[in-house]
Amino acid sequence: MVSQTLKYAYFPGCVAQGACGELHQSTVALTKALGIELIELKKAACCGSGTFKEDSQLLEDTVNARNIALAEELNLPLLTHCSTCQGVIGHVDERLKESQQTNPDYVEQVNGLLQKEGCLPYRGKTQVKHLLYALVSDYGLEEIQKRVTRKLTGLKCAAFYGCYLLRAQKSIPDDPFRPEAMENVFRSLDATPVYYRGRTQCCGWPLSSYATTQSFKMAGMHIQEALANGADCMVTPCPLCHLNLDSRQPEVEKVIGQKLGLPVLHLPQLIALAVGVSPKALGLDRHIVSTQPVLDKLAAVV
């Protein structure tokens, strides 16, 4: 599918440059290994994680219209690797594109605010894509498969899609209730997909600041289900999900009264492992739950 070098305006987001620094690290390593060029949008602002609209929809739209305009200036698609960023920015893009036809005065209002700050206007001339769908739709699973040097044979992977990636936008290249994109990626790496009820449900992160126990019970339920279905690891396309499922897994264990110990990988980490990138270069040593069981299992089949 790849006939020329793919190039994207890269929106790393906040969490991947802070609490989940290994996500940024592994995204850069993976795209370099695949020959994909990323131009980081260093002037981009936080998408707001869905909180800006609690104060003002106009605020959320204006901040993210500016982010999209930065990609438009480069004449490139905007690439995210966070489901929350994708959900927020992608939904703003859909809403503004629709408004260009149905309510152009609103788009003018947004652009007027941008102009006051010396920012470029939103034109609605690009796309907002998550890394998962860029790899599946633009790069192609067959091309990824050609670059696999370390087959993940025998590794049982449980996808955790979460909420935002599947249902925040009106149209995604997948079924929002019965998705297969991540499972198809696993198959292309010779890994085995694990299906379980919670893979498309909320991880509990949005509740964690005010209903911590309920949040941890939700995360624990998903991890328990994945383990019960034979998973060796969980794989997520969202760093916020990763925080609740990996970073807080020891706290989750205390709440539910059960030892879990399920490694949780970022999607680019898993793919990059299969195309030969070293675990150290992917930040696999940064996780709270040790990823060594995954590496041990792969060593047994390499």
Automatic annotation (TrEMBL):
Q: Where is the Cysteine-rich domain?
A: 8-89, 158-246
Organism (species)? Iningainema tapete BLCC-T55
Q: Name one GO molecular function term.
A: oxidoreductase activity
Name the record gives this protein: CoB--CoM heterodisulfide reductase iron-sulfur subunit B family protein
Key words, A-Z: Oxidoreductase
Q: Name one Pfam family in it.
A: CCG
Q: Give the superkingdom in one word.
A: Bacteria
